[in-house]
């Protein structure tokens, strides 16, 4: 598992665990025809000071918008590689949300026989 970067003062980590998305993803013919479930964990670092003062979602990272973006992207693009999905999703989040870094882990259960599945992890920082 990749380690997450440290947070700046007043910053914390917001996350979504085990988001289930049914989508077409993979390189093999059967993966291009039928949807399969992937599971996604997302963590982002953001400034907690403004939302802690206001107690308003407009000053925080909106979980619903984050999960909606992830689901829509996975379902609309019909990716071949988990890596491409991870890269494009993290790129979009860095553009749309006031965060310092993002960490994503994507699991595809039925990708590899005799295993728990394939896993892709990516950490990206703003400005890198």
Give the structure's gist in a few sentences.
This protein is α+β, with helices and mostly antiparallel strands and 128 residues long. The protein has four helices and four strands; from the N terminus they run βαβαααββ.
Outline the fold blueprint.
Elements (H helix, E strand, L loop, with lengths): L10 E13 L5 H5 L2 E12 L1 H6 L8 H15 L4 H15 L4 E8 L9 E8 L3
Antiparallel strand pairs: 1-2, 2-3, 3-4
Please give a handful of descriptors for the protein shown.
128 residues; alpha+beta; GTP Cyclohydrolase I, domain 2; four-stranded antiparallel sheet; elongated
- Give the amount of beta strand, in percent: 25-35%
* Average pLDDT metric: 93
The top-level CATH class is: Alpha Beta
Reading side by side through the largest sheet, how are the strands ordered? Answer: 1-2-3-4
Question: How many domains in all?
Answer: 1
Poorly predicted segments = none
Ends: how far apart? 21 Å
What's the shape?
A: elongated
Major sheet details: 4 strands, antiparallel
Structural class: alpha+beta
Structural write-up:
The chain is α+β, with helices and mostly antiparallel strands and 128 residues long. The chain has a single domain, classed as GTP cyclohydrolase I, C-terminal domain/NADPH-dependent 7-cyano-7-deazaguanine reductase, N-terminal domain (GTP Cyclohydrolase I, domain 2, 2-Layer Sandwich), CATH 3.30.1130.10. The protein has helices at residues 29-33, 49-54, 63-77, 82-96; strands at residues 11-23, 36-47, 101-108, 118-125. It has a 4-stranded antiparallel β-sheet with strand order 1-2-3-4. It is elongated. The model has no long low-confidence stretch (mean pLDDT 93).
């Amino acid at each position: 598992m990749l380690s997450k970067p440290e947070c700046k003062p007043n910053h914390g980590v917001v996350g979504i665990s085990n988001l289930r998305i049914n989508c077409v993803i993979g390189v093999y013919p059967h993966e291009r025809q039928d949807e399969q479930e992937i599971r996604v964990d997302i963590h982002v670092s953001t400034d907690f000071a403004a939302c802690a003062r206001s107690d308003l979602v407009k000053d925080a990272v909106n979980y619903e918008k984050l999960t909606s973006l992830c689901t829509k992207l996975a379902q609309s693009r019909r990716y071949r590689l988990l890596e491409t999905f991870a890269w494009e999703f993290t790129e979009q989040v860095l553009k749309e949300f006031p965060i310092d870094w993002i960490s994503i882990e994507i699991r595809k259960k039925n990708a590899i026989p005799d295993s728990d599945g394939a896993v892709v992890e990516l950490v990206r920082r703003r400005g890198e």
